[in-house]
Amino acid sequence: xxxxxxxxxxxxxxxxxxxxxxxxxxxxxxxxxxxxxxxxxxxxxxxxxxxxxxxxxxxxxxxxxxxxxxxxxxxxxxxxxxxxxxxxxxxxxxxxxxxxxxxxxxxxxxxxxxxxxxxxxxxxxxxxxxxxxxxxxxxxxxxxxxxxxxxxxxxxxxxxxxxxxxxxxxxxxxxxxxxxxxxxxxxxxxxxxxxxxxxxxxxxxxxxxxxxxxxxxxxxxxxxxxxxxxxxxxxxxxxxxxxxxxxxxxxxxxxxxxxxxxxxxxxxxxxxxxxxxxxxxxxxxxxxxxxxxxxxxxxxxxxxxxxxxxxxxxxxxxxxxxxxxxxxxxxxxxxxxxxxxxxxxxxxxxxxxxxxxxxxxxxxxxxxxxxxxxxxxxxxxxxxxxxxxxxxxxxxxxxxxxxxxxxxxxxxxxxxxxxxxxxxxxxxxxxxxxxx
Length: 436
Known about the structure:
This protein is of the alpha/beta class. It contains 19 helices and twelve strands.
């Protein structure tokens, strides 16, 4: 098991900037599972961070090494969930969560690398592997502990068998038409109005029917930027808003009402991701503006409670925040049970590449629908991946290469590994010269 601290200097151009995170350097605590198989098949995964602390995330992944070494490929292919169960089940490491925070994200990185390894070994993109799988096998991959008051294994099995009906036709439609996307690329908070308007017009020209703006730092700025965005895209394009957890509950209600004249489609992360009752109160107060959340929700149990409390209209999974594919399967099943659409978070290095597989599985073999469902797209850092996302007319094209689309180019690892990659060494030298 090899790990890498990979960081990209996105803060230099304010890419990714929002009201809570004004200067992110998009980063990946990256893990590679290597084998001694004749075909040299490997598994790749990562946890997404925004710069400082990525070394802490790498250290957490390293702490899991002993649970990974020595397993056989046959064991992994038969039951990827065995790794998830062992990693979550260590009683001493569990104390650091349980099932949340840096350690849980480390587990997610390793578990996702396992699934990349399994899908690569079977010669299928992950979405296809999951869609083809027997429902009983998929149910065995899910940890139902703490969920059975909302979703039982029997109910999950019924949902998956129902999802098999028409799956072949939906797979054909997916391959032909792709999966709907929206873009956040015009809306970073650090962008000026001219850049926002230009990128918003380009997004519409590229076929996107929804864009997203970051809000929450200054109300007058938000009013001006929303006005500029609406003028740029016209009345027929959805404009979603994202506060990135900036507000208290009452402040969120007041702010959203002030912005309602621009017809926002949803308000994302209006308050703390842990405040279930706060989300429910905001949702009641700001309807018909939808409430969306999930990118920072720490595990399936909090998602369960958000659904039970009627606290969200749009559920946003994140491929690298929870405990990997296995836990995201549980969350997708919960969303299907409650009839809530899933619109994944993908603003970050590699998150678009990963989460497209989960939404495509959901469409083909679980929910059976793309209605009111879109995957976030941001237009940066894809060139660092061996199988980058492909966007056509505002839609994700279905991946065709085997695996989870997580593998980065060796040259990118060599250039952007921190602190001794070639980019960062040169950057330090330039800064030292500037101070002399």
